[in-house]
Design goal:
Length: 317
């Protein structure tokens, strides 16, 4: 059994906001961070504060600061409608290399999943999707999970060494994720290499572009129908992973990302998709990546992720 507390550092107490008003309690005042609280928790928060993969992909650094920035905003929120016990496991620290850090993250995530917890992982770069997805495959089986990449990019680059643009290529090529159980959601064609698009098309990956999402009355309608059919065709025990790269949200609503774009999901559409992830009984893990506090105007991006976490915690079944 992996000792997750030997492989993580405890959350900074300064991030746990206190209102000091018994009639207006905040999440920071009731947060569970002691290892003694872990056993009774339903939802675990875990950070991976590194941006090595972003740097390797020639992105702008800063995502290493994201877990702290998001926690700072999350713990200012109230526990309205949250009935599940939340435990903050702290951070997996960067080790000697990105590859080794991914191994540590996979070990921690796998143990939390084996313990029957739901998990919210805060990046860091989107490269952590490889570590998180590998953990899901190890625990539940490579053919027993659905992976959903909500992102303006495909992240199936064939680069060496690995970086923030390679995680789903790694999962697919290494057999951890079945192509027909993988969903690319919200991608923008002008950011996608025709070669890499042909790669996922040939494999049979499910593709729902930003334009297709926009053609529906609700942002999650197409995704709902696709995943519903996937559950029907397989079994109700099929587990689900959602990776939200925050550059999928337009820069007007999320200015602090590694690769901002004037086009993308609106903040409300993003929250709708997070709520949909929460509504699925078998969503085991949700991650938020590529927040860059160095460019975040009024902490808008960190606040949006914090609200997404809140909606997930209040919506899980």
């Amino acid at each position: 059994m992996t000792d997750i507390f030997e492989l993580t550092s405890r959350p900074d107490p300064k991030l746990l906001f206190h209102k000091h008003d018994k009639f207006d309690v905040r999440l920071g005042e009731i947060a569970c961070t002691s290892p003694d609280d872990y056993a009774n928790a339903h939802i675990v928060i875990l950070g991976c504060p590194q941006d090595e993969g972003v740097k390797r992909n020639n992105g702008r650094p800063g995502a290493a600061l994201a877990p702290a920035a998001v926690r700072e905003q999350f713990y200012r929120l109230t526990p309205f409608n949250i009935t599940k016990r939340i435990f903050d496991a702290g951070d997996v620290e960067f080790t000697e290399s990105l590859e080794q850090t991914h191994d540590v993250l996979t070990s921690v995530v796998a143990q939390v999943l084996r313990d029957g917890k739901r998990l919210i992982v805060l990046g860091g770069g989107n490269d952590i999707s490889y570590a998180d997805g590998r953990a899901v495959a190890e625990v539940f089986g490579a053919g027993e999970w659905i992976g959903v990449n909500v992102d303006s990019h495909l992240d199936v680059r064939a680069d060496q060494p690995r970086n923030s643009g390679t995680p789903y290529r790694q999962l697919l090529d290494e057999g951890f994720l079945a192509p027909t159980s993988f969903y690319e959601v919200g991608y923008q064609s002008h950011y996608c290499s025709p070669t890499y698009y042909e790669y996922i098309r040939t494999l049979g990956v499910n593709r729902i572009s930003l334009e297709l999402l926009r053609s529906r009355a609700e942002a999650d309608l197409e995704l709902k129908e696709n995943i519903r059919q996937k559950f029907i065709n397989h079994s109700s025990s099929l587990n689900t992973f959602f990776g939200f790269d925050m550059d999928v949200v337009r820069s007007a609503d999320a200015p602090g990302t590694s690769a901002p774009s004037p086009l993308g999901l609106r903040a409300g559409e993003f929250i709708t998709l997070v709520k949909y992830a929460a509504s699925l009984a078998n969503t085991r893990l949700i991650e938020f990546t590529e927040v860059n506090p160095n460019f975040d105007v009024d902490s808008r991006t960190a606040k949006l992720v914090a609200i997404g976490m809140h909606r997930f915690c209040s919506g899980v079944v």
